[in-house]
């Protein structure tokens, strides 16, 4: 019994490590997508778009491994909860990759024009940095199950929401001179960064649920 | 063994029925949210927003029941796949409810003004109808596992994408006279309906995967 438990926990640990790997990949994508949109860098945008296939592949691989572990080990109670939570986390992180890809697609669509007007470069830069920082903290939470840190992500998400409000306010506060297409792009960009951070928060809540058996 | 299998399949059938119930609830929310946004109906918008708590509660209840079935019945192979797929479907359908709520929140935010200008009422009406129709077909796919119908949802989603393109084109084709706030609202509305339909397609793909063991 002891040996089986140990194999199980090694497998679970392996899943956590794969989730961290996936988080790092996705965080890198969002960093690159932000650079691509702020510098109208087509090849970087293409790289992010192509890399999303790798994210999807790792996601499917993690899902298959989790289902295989459940079938072989037949876990119950907290062990089963941990695996189901891991399935949901993998799905959230994969979705974060999609959102990074969406940012890159706007960069590609507008190339060689800049999608972001000069006065909003600082805001989008800050949203990109906030997205990368929240992913890195999320990865630490997944790896360490540090619940105090898990709850910090709610506050980090508030910062992203503030940046999002600043972005929308900038569109509305003065007469807008950059045309409707740019306004649409910025509305969608704001939504993508905001949703990206929302998924990171969801992942941290799932870690909390996994450890405590209830939601924060 | 026969009796245990039968109990298992009754339980799985119960989960499918709950997913159908959740789909109907969500479809009703999107229908009401569309009416609310097209008639600036505050009380209807509030109703949709409040109802989302019920959607979340049913979602959590389905999740808990699925985890309980896995723990007690220890299914393997296609039975386990069916339960994991059901977890993912419940999550998608709950997200569709969130998106209906987002539509309702725009109606509430703009009340007593209309969020949708007269020349775009037909397009948003069509997007609302397409959303309801795709959810109803999705519910039939979940209930019957009809794979031919499951694949039809891809085409239904193409129609939603066409409507979404029409909406964006209407924003860009002529000089826009409704202000930037309305343009932002319409950009987000378009995104919400499009994502809603995407999740319905994902559910139908998960039914396909559940039956075939591979993606369509």
Which strand-content bin applies to the residues of chain A?
under 5%
User: How many domains comprise the coordinates of chain A?
Assistant: 1
Count of helices of chain A? 6
What is the helix fraction of residues of chain A, given as a range? over 70%
The string of secondary-structure elements of chain A, in order, is HHHHHH
Low-confidence stretches of chain A: none
Report the biggest beta sheet of chain A as strand number plus sense, adding barrel if it closes. Answer: none
Number of strands of chain A: 0
Q: What is CATH's topology name of chain A?
A: Methane Monooxygenase Hydroxylase, Chain G, domain 1
Based on secondary structure, the structural category of chain A is mainly alpha
What kind of assembly state do the chains in view correspond to? homodimer
Given the C-alpha coordinates, what overall shape of chain A results?
elongated
CATH superfamily assignment of chain A? Phosphate transport system protein phou homolog 2, domain 2
Regarding CATH, which class of chain A? Mainly Alpha
Distance between the termini of chain A: 33 Å
Mean pLDDT of chain A: 96
Largest contact between protein chains? A-B, 25 and 24 residues
Q: What is the alpha-carbon Rg of chain A in Å?
A: 19 Å
* The CATH architecture of chain A: Up-down Bundle
């Amino acid at each position: 019994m002891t040996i089986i438990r140990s194999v199980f926990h090694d497998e679970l640990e392996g899943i956590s490590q794969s989730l961290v790997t996936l988080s790092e990949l996705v965080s890198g994508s969002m960093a690159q997508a932000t650079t691509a949109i702020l510098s109208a860098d087509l090849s970087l945008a293409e790289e992010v778009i192509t890399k999303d296939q790798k994210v999807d592949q790792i996601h499917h691989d993690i899902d298959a491994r989790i289902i295989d572990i459940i079938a072989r080990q037949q876990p119950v109670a907290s062990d089963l909860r941990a695996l189901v939570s891991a399935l949901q986390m993998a799905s959230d992180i994969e979705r974060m990759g999609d959102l990074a890809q969406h940012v890159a697609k706007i960069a590609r669509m507008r190339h060689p024009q800049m999608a972001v007007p000069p006065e909003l470069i600082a805001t989008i830069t800050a949203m990109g940095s906030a997205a990368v920082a929240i992913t890195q903290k999320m990865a630490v939470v997944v790896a360490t199950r540090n619940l105090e840190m898990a709850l910090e992500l709610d506050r980090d998400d508030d910062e992203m929401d503030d940046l999002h409000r600043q972005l929308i306010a900038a569109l509305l506060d003065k007469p807008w001179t950059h045309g409707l297409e740019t306004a649409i792009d910025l509305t969608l960009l704001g939504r993508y960064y905001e949703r990206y951070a929302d998924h990171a928060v969801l992942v941290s809540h799932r870690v909390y649920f996994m450890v405590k058996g209830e939601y924060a």
